[in-house]
Amino acid sequence: MQLKYSYFPGCKISGQLSDYGASTQTLMKHLGIEWVELQFNCCGYPIRHQNLEASVFSAARNMALAEHAHLDILTPCKCCFGNLKHSQHMLKNDSELFKRINDRLKDEGLTYSGSIEIKHLLTVLYHDVGLDSVQSHILHPYQSTTLVAASYGCHALRPANIMNFDHPFDPTIFEKVIAVSGAQTVFWPKRTECCGHPVFEKNPILSNDLLQSKISDAIEAGADIICTACTYCQMQYERLGQNQLPVMTISQLLKKAISGRSRSLT
Amino acid sequence: MLKYSFYISFAIFIAGLIFRLAQWIRFDLDTESAEQSKVKRTFALWESLWNHIVSAQVLLMIKAFFWDGLLQARILKSSPLRWLTHMSIFWGFILLLLFHALDDHISVWIFPNYASTINPYMFLRNLCGFFVLSGILLAFYRRRKKRIVKHISNWMDYSVLGLIAAIIISGFLVEAIQIISERQFDNMVSDYVITDDESEILALRAYWAKYYSVSFAQPVDISSPILLETGHSLHEDSCVSCHSRPQYAFVSFNLVQLFAPFATVLNALHMDAIILIVHYMLCFIGLAWLPFSKMFHMITTPLNYCLTASSQESKHSAAVANGKIVSLDACTHCGVCSEHCSVAPIYQVIGNDCILPSEKIGAVLSMAAGRHPIALENLSSGNAICTECNQCTNNCPSGIPLLDIWQNTKKELQNKGMYRPEDLIQSHSAYEWAEIWKSQKPTTPPYQSFISDDPQTYEACVQCSVCTQVCPIVAAASNNGDPIDVTPQQVMNLLRIGLKDKALGTQMVWTCATCYMCQENCPQHIPVADVFYELRNLAHAQINFKQTGEK
Question: What is the pLDDT of residue A25?
């Protein structure tokens, strides 16, 4: 069956991290995933600190657009994924909020019913495409001596009862996807911890401390590369930690294993 | 009178031009610009102009002027319908201006047989007017139809559309009433017809009544072929070299049908002369108003295309300061940025105009002019919501580097003491904030789930401190020797004993990384992170209240 999604890059890909967007699209092309780009807006994650309703409304508008197109949402960003899922949960369990949001959507002729699914790139690769199928595209596998540390990103993991992504503390999906590329993954205790990006603007020192403790953990575990699957995590590593270990997104990692071409890694 | 009216409006136009040019030097977009002396910036303006012209960049600039300025390729890229709209208005009006309004200075020199009432000029004039009016209608429709554009459209947008429409409509009216005007006919006859023979003139009247739609007070017999034949030969001698059939003025001619029944009254009232004066006056108003209105974009937008096309980086900070203001001035308030704005839905809930880029531009300009402290506060809280997705810059048909401006504005607002809530919260301890907020009217966001007020939320908390132990913020803060003020478990305790007001301003709540470690690890399933989110929402409402003093 042809896989088709509404692709939700999120603000930071269009504004700051176009590499991740470009490599994700190339990867989808290689894997035969079809996608459409709708007139999406912000997922609502950044405004959630300030105004829950604005956050849920932003998310709901996106989901309503995807519903209108009858397509599940695929996003490569875990913060977008997390907030869309969280808003979906809120709307399912809070009838007053559901009504308020739909009243607002009506102005635009949109409705939200909750009929589509929110998917992260990793879950699409793992559940929808299937690892065997991804494997069949790998023509330039990494050497098995390449050790990759998978940096999960909190917002897709927790709260687990809402995200349904993987185990909140002991996930395996990311490692399994990376393993397809031929590289080996390492276990590092801080792989599911916060990268520090959410507090970067409030407290850059703390933010850097959080990131550095992750990087040292990855180095200690012997990793050659840190791999991310979240726009915000990637931005945080690029901004504060690029010199210690090479950091790449899952899309870049797989793209290189599939086509053999990539940005140089150092 | 017309002559003096023109001189006055032209003088206002020139004064306005100087006023706007002076703004490029007078306005300071940021502290760095403000530090440059105004004299330096005046010289820099001329110097950069000169440098651009003599450099190799001039070819790039000509290309930009041709593609983006004259053919408006950027608008085409963003929306073919808007391109059609704008091209119709722009080219229709420019052609009318050059070949109709300035016909004594341009058309007569270019076209040897030029007369305003002969084809193809008469037909083309109507065609241009028709294009402008259709464009105006499309633009008006767009402003009423598109949700966000409708919201941002203001009196300036509508009055500019209205003025241009009024100029064109009055032009058509003049032409229509002149076609049927007996007075015009008589004047022309006395000026251009050589014969004094009454019967011949009568024949010409018949001919013109039949074929040129002139309405005579005295009924004219138009059925006699002999009379018409005589009229025709006189017409051939005296009139035809300057007059094509009025049908070719296809808009005005259709209006004629509308006015024909009232022709006698209109002629008696000298309506042709009155409407002509109205038409002139409207044009003069347009000229005088141009530099003060958004129509000024016809100068600034092409200028901005040229400036951005030139990759020559200016080394003078004075020139950079000027360039920023010029680019802001290129805004046409078309609203495309707000249509593409990623956080426009947030505006729908929070309702601060300064969330929308098209409205932020006005606020940034008034910041640059040093006006409106209230607007500054709205700008600060609105601009903070921008996610820097860059869609505004990518879609701006005027090529304004909007994201750069928002980022600069963020810095500049901090220089001006407009702190973001995240920074402001650090200026007091949680207990001090509780005291400050106690004295002000309690504000809450319009929608809250209020789990923080529900005793059941914390009922099961046994203060086991697991949340604190797994919190990466608590660990990182104590590792670098600056322990967090209260731990997650202590925040829960504050809430349990009813001291929510003391929890709202805690560093713990505001520095939460939202990693949900606490909530996921809690053996009692207490939604610690969700409560923190809610407390931040409530605190934001309070702190925003304090900042803006309204809402």
Answer: 97
Chain A CB within 8 Å of residue B516 CB: yes
CA B215 to CA A91: how far, in whole Å? 71
Which residue out of A203, A210, A212, A217 would a mutagenesis test of the B interface target, given it has the greatest number of B Cβ atoms within 10 Å? A203
The answer to whether the beta carbons of residues A47 and A58 sit under 8 Å apart is: yes
Least confident of A145-159, A193-207, B102-116, B318-332: B318-332
The CATH architecture assigned to B301-418 reads Orthogonal Bundle (1.10)
Q: Is B446 on the interface with A (CB under 8 A)?
A: yes
A229-257 pLDDT tens trace: 999 999 999 999 878 899 999 999 999 99
- Using the Cβ of A97 and the Cβ atoms of chain B, whether some distance falls under 8 Å is answered with yes
Residues A98 and A143 in one domain: no
Q: How many domains is chain A built from?
A: 2
Strand A147-151 vs strand A184-185: parallel, antiparallel, or unpaired? parallel
The whole-number average pLDDT for the span A19-25 is 96
Asked if the structure places residue A130 within a domain, the reply is no
The answer to whether the CB of B461 falls within 8 A of the CB of B492 is yes
Residue A15's domain comprises 4-120
* Shortest Cα–Cα distance, B158 to chain A (Å): 23
Contact of B510 with chain A, judged by CB distance below 8 Å, is answered with yes
Q: How far is A26 from chain B (nearest CA, A)?
A: 21
Contact at 8 Å (CB) between B304 and B398?
yes
The CATH-assigned architecture of domain B425-548 is: Orthogonal Bundle (1.10)
Cα distance between residue B249 and residue B402, in whole Å: 45
Residue A92 is assigned to a structural domain of this protein: yes
pLDDT band at A265 (very low <50, low <70, confident <90, very high): very low
Query: Does A110 contact B at CB distance below 8 Å?
Result: no
Between CA A84 and CA A86 the distance in angstroms is: 5
Low-confidence ranges of chain B (pLDDT < 50): 547-551
ipTM: 0.95
In a domain, A11, yes or no: yes
- CB contacts of A159 in chain B (<8 Å) are 516, 519-520, 527, 529
